[in-house]
Structure formats: C-alpha cells, structure tokens
Write a structure and sequence with these properties.
Elements (H helix, E strand, L loop, with lengths): L2 H12 L1 H6 L14 H16 L8 H15 L10 E5 L6 E4 L3 E5 H6 L3 H16 L2 H9 L7 H12 L3 H7 L3 H6 L5 H17 L5 H17 L5 H5 L4 H14 L8 H13 L4 H17 L5 H14 L3 H13 L6 H14 L3 H17 L4 H13 L3 H10 L8 H13 L3 H14 L3 H14 L4 H29 L8
Parallel strand pairs: 1-3
Antiparallel strand pairs: 2-3
Helix pairs in contact: 1-8, 1-9, 4-6, 4-21, 6-11, 6-12, 8-9, 12-14, 15-17, 16-17, 17-18, 17-19, 18-19, 19-20, 19-21, 20-21, 21-22, 22-23, 23-24, 24-25, 25-26
C-alpha cells in the first residue's frame, strides 16, 4: 500500500477519536459551507501527513518556483485574502488537486507534461478557481450530516480522491469508499472553475490557449486509453462541452504569446533529475542532456546545462557540475535565483581550498541580497554556513532574514542544528520542540522541552520560555487526552 494511504489508515484505525480531537468541529448541521477557519484546520491536518510522506518533494527550488507561479495567479484573483500554499509530490502521474484551506498540490508528472508555462498556469488557475468558489467547503459541509461517514474516513477519502491513492486508501478504512464517491467535483463545479480559472489566467498575462491545449490533450489521452484516464480526470470530469466552452472563451478573448520563464525551463530540467535519482537513471539523464546540448533538441541550452549540473551533483561530481552550471549561466542574460543558487552550490562542493569555499560562501551571500525573498536561496546559504562550521553566523542570519517564515519547520530545524554544533543543548532542544509542534507531533515536542528543562544550560530568560512552553503543551496534551476519553465513553464517565 502506498505510504500516504498506510499512514492515514494507521492513524485513523488506531486512534480515530484522538485524531478527530485535533480537528475542528464540522460547524453547525445544515450549514452550507465550512467556515474558512475550519477549512484551514482540515487542510493543515492533511498537510502534516503529506509532509511526512516520501512522495512529498522537499525541494526548496521547486517549491519556490511553484509558489511564485501560484501567487502570480492568486494576486489577480478574488481569493487574495486566502493564504495559499502550493506544493509538489514526486509522482509521475498527471495530477493536481486542491485541499481545504488553500493548499494546492501538483504532481511532478504534470509539470513535466506541461508543454508551456501557460499550460501549467492554467491548471493552477483552475484549482485556485475551486478554492475561490469554495467547492471543497461545500463538499465537506454536505457530508457532515451523513451519520455513516466519520470525520477520519471523510478526510481520508478527500485526500484519496485528490491523489493517486484513491482505491487503496479508501478501502483501507470503513466508510471511506462511500465518502470518496461524493467528493469528485461535479460538472457544474468544473465549469465554474473553468470560468474563474480562465479569468485568472488571462488577467495574469498568460496565454489562455494553454488551458485549451492542456485539457484537449488530456481528453485525447482518455480516448486513446479508454478507461485508463489520467489521474487528473478521475476527479475533474472532462466533457466535450467543457472543451468547446474553453475554445469559445479563447476566440472571444483572443490569444497572446507568453514566453516561458527561464525558471520554468530550469525546474522542468531539475525535475527530470529528481524524478528518479538512481545511478543508472542519473547517467541516462546526463547522456540525454548532453545530446540535447549538442543537437539543440527539446530544452533550451541553458536548461540542458542546468540539468547536467543537477545530475552531476547528485552523482557527487562537483567539478563537471560546476562547469555545466557556469555554462548555463553564460548562455543566458536572464536573472534566475534557481540558476544562481546552483552555481553557488556547485562552487562550494567543487572547492578544494578554504579560500575557494569562502568565495563560494560569498556568492551565496550575494544571492541572498539579490533574492531576499527566495526561501531556496536562504536555505542554501544557511546550509553552506553550517557545512563551513559558521554556526553563529548561521543563527544570526536565520533570526534576521525574511525568506524563511517562523511557521516553517525548517526554520527551527536549522536553528536546532546550529545550536547543537555550538553545544548549546537547551536551545537546540527548544528549537527542535518548535519544529515538532509545526509538524503536528506534540508528544515529541514535550519530550524535547523536558530534555531542555533537565539540561538547563541556558540563561534565565530562555529557561523561563522553555518552562512556559512545556506547561502549555503538557496542558494541551492532557486536554486532548481527556476529550478523547470522554468521547470514547459516549460522554458519560469512562465508558465502562
């Protein structure tokens, strides 16, 4: 069974009430929509599971790019007040999906299948349309009154319906299959998301023909393989009427050329490498990128050189990686945080003397000034500082930078690593605890704070923070445990 399905099944089967305790109540019976707060809390709960799954692509460069593209679309939508988060799953199937609360996932297979940036933007715009029109909030609210569907199975079904794990995940727990059947978007929802997505796509300056070309290719793939429809179409029913309507909108609005960004080309090359990082696959990628450079096929030369650099770094060949990264940089005049980050990393790994390593660090530092809001650039710089044993500098930078929010587990993970290297054990455990809180593991966070309290090698102010946070999280755990016990007992005593 795929990992996501297994994790969800285990959590819901073993601790169904405890898991539900961490979720908001599904509002009042009969209400047409979940509240935005309810949506966000449900989405965050699902994301805690997804982030721990091997398919979750924890690649800062790719995450940076998909969020930049996503927010380019969100900025011209009516959903600007929603805190969207775009993420990528390492999966070769063609799929994208929206979760409650503005979380939008995209499979690597879809990014690689998109033949232009406008096609990729069209899919994201369509998903933003579902969120803006609150289709998910209505779906969940409609299922709230069904006594046969538990909260856990409903959320499992929602995740299953949005990802490749539908049948296996849904069969893993009681009534999830029944719930899943009701969670595919209706044709009316799809038409509305098409309309809203089209408006967003054109307002953001992308070619609306991208929406037509992508969905037409999906429809042709369905006809070619009969029942083997792309994953995307299993929850986004596509009809000839929808395609005709899209074509009509394009004729009315007209088309305009939108040049693909350099980062779109670079990320596609990067994902070809990340899709399969076995030695054989990486060697095949190197051969493919080399052929593309020699014969100018498929990718631009810049993207091919970048892919060559990425594959060589994965194979621990920093010299060839640096040569390819510099060739990529030389082949374009466009600015790109993705490319500049690769040059800095390859320079550091290829460095043979302390002076060369410091020069690479200077490149990375310059990148943080040039791209102050790039999380990938910030994380790369901190990682290089830690490898160079400049941990005090790493901590100072982390505490003053703007790119990595304090709501990101990585923020505390990097702090914990540097504090540990400096033998500041209390602060290291304190930071690790905050990382676990953000990952949804209160028990692990409490254990870290207990260790911090026991070691007590920090100043009075820090120890006061540790003790207050330990008291807060311990009380939260006790409250959750009490609520779960009461629910299991039917609200009357201990249920015995």
């Amino acid at each position: 069974m795929p990992a996501i399905a297994a994790v969800l099944s285990a959590v819901i089967a073993i601790e169904p009430v405890a898991w539900a305790q961490e979720l908001p109540t599904l509002g009042q019976a009969g209400a047409e929509y979940l509240t935005p707060l309810e949506e966000r809390m449900y989405g965050e709960q699902i994301m805690r599971v997804l982030r721990g799954d091997p398919s979750y692509l924890d690649d800062p460069e790719t995450t940076d790019y998909i969020n930049r593209l996503g927010y380019q679309l969100v900025s011209v939508s009516a959903a600007r007040d929603i805190n969207f988060e775009f993420f990528v799953l390492r999966d070769s199937t063609i799929n994208a999906f929206a979760l409650p609360g503005g979380f939008i996932g995209v499979h690597t297979g879809l990014i690689l299948a998109a033949q232009s940036e406008s096609e990729l933007a069209a899919v994201l715009a369509h998903e933003i349309g579902h969120v803006q029109q609150r289709h998910l909030a209505r779906q969940l609210a409609q299922q709230r009154d069904n006594a046969l569907i538990t909260i856990g199975s409903l959320l499992l079904a929602l995740l299953a319906a949005r990802t490749e794990y539908g049948p296996q995940a849904a069969m893993a727990v009681g009534q999830a299959a029944a719930a899943q059947r009701s969670l595919a978007f209706s044709r009316a929802d799809e038409r509305e998301a098409d309309r809203v997505g089209f408006q967003i796509l054109t307002a953001a300056g992308f070619d609306p023909q991208g929406m037509v070309s992508f969905f037409r290719r999906m429809e042709q793939g369905t006809r070619a393989y009969d029942s083997m429809a792309p994953e995307y179409l299993q929850t986004h029913p596509l009809t000839a009427e929808r395609i005709a309507d899209m074509m009509g909108r394009v004729r009315q609005a007209g088309t305009h050329q939108h040049a693909d960004s350099l980062d779109f080309q670079l990320i596609r090359a990067r994902l070809r490498v990340l899709q399969d990082e076995s030695t054989t696959a990486l060697q095949d990628r190197i051969a493919g990128f080399t052929y593309a450079i020699q014969h100018h096929t498929e990718l631009t030369d810049t993207a091919s050189y970048y892919g060559l650099a990425a594959a060589n770094l994965d194979l621990n060949r920093p010299g060839p990686a640096l040569a390819a990264a510099l060739a990529a940089q030389k082949s374009t005049k466009a600015d790109s945080s993705v490319l500049d980050d690769m040059v800095a990393e390859a320079s550091y790994q290829a460095a043979k003397t302390p002076a060369q390593r410091e020069a690479a660090l200077a490149l990375a530092k310059a990148d943080t000034n040039r791209y102050p809001l790039s999380q990938a650039v910030a994380l790369e710089y901190v990682d290089m500082l830690q490898r160079a044993h400049h941990d005090k500098q790493a901590i100072a930078y982390m505490q003053n930078q703007l790119a990595i929010p304090h709501s990101d587990p990585d923020y505390y993970g990097y702090l914990a690593k540097s504090y540990s290297a400096l033998n500041e054990k209390t602060r290291s455990h304190q930071a690790t605890a905050e990382m676990y809180v953000l990952l949804g593991s209160t028990t692990a966070a409490v254990e870290q704070l207990r260790l911090a309290h026991k070691i007590a090698d920090a100043d009075f102010y820090t120890m006061t923070e540790v003790d207050a946070r330990l008291h807060e999280l311990t009380a939260r755990m006790q409250q959750d445990a009490g609520g779960a016990k009461k629910s299991q007992g039917g609200g009357d005593g201990d249920g015995s």
